[in-house]
Amino acid sequence: MSTGPDDTTDTVVVGRIGRPHGVRGEVTVEVRTDDPDLRFAPGAVLRTEPADRGPLTIAACRWHREVLLLAIDGVKSREAAEELRNTELHVPVADLPALEDPDVYYDHQLVGLTARLPDGTELGTVSAVRHEGADLLVVRRVEGGELLVPFVTAIVPTVDVPGGVVVVDPPEGLLDL
């Protein structure tokens, strides 16, 4: 396990920088963490992808309506902020707090798991987790294409992270979508 500042192998994405806000270098952030106040606290140092844009140190964090705005050390102009657009912000997996609920998972724990039907038939591999009102597993199907699976116990009764498997018990018609 490498821990160098430019290594994103053992990191998770907590946000993506969007457009500049104002003329003093603030940026908007697409939040991808459930604890933005902790992840983007002033003084936090975040790794980046592309790696050559960071690491970045948060100078200030504030909410403007429903949008998170960040001030970043050394970024003082709209032009400098624009250069950071589409930069992913990462934190080391080791910095994530342990989850107390055994039925709650970090997205990175689910991505890469093999999705199987209750009879053992392989559906594909979990390629992403979407949070669009409901949590959805994106399964890249063995025969091609993607399947969106609601991540609820009734449909995904078994998650075996150490075994590398999720069991999908789809309602009628889900596999035909």
TrEMBL record:
It holds the Pfam family RimM. An accessory protein needed during the final step in the assembly of 30S ribosomal subunit, possibly for assembly of the head region. Essential for efficient processing of 16S rRNA. May be needed both before and after RbfA during the maturation of 16S rRNA. It has affinity for free ribosomal 30S subunits but not for 70S ribosomes. One of its GO terms (molecular function) is ribosome binding. It is found in: Cytoplasm. Belongs to the RimM family. HAMAP family: Ribosome_mat_RimM (MF_00014). Keywords: Chaperone, Cytoplasm, Ribosome biogenesis, rRNA processing. The lineage of its organism: Bacteria, Bacillati, Actinomycetota, Actinomycetes, Geodermatophilales. It comes from the Bacteria. Binds ribosomal protein uS19. GO terms for biological process: ribosomal small subunit biogenesis; rRNA processing. GO terms for cellular component: cytoplasm; ribosome. It comes from Geodermatophilus obscurus (strain ATCC 25078 / DSM 43160 / JCM 3152 / CCUG 61914 / KCC A-0152 / KCTC 9177 / NBRC 13315 / NRRL B-3577 / G-20). Gene3D superfamilies: PRC-barrel domain (2.30.30.240), RimM (2.40.30.60). Residues 108-174 form the Ribosome maturation factor RimM PRC barrel domain. Residues 13-94 form the RimM N-terminal domain. This is Ribosome maturation factor RimM. Coiled coil: none annotated. NCBIfam families: 16S_RimM. The PRC barrel domain binds ribosomal protein uS19.
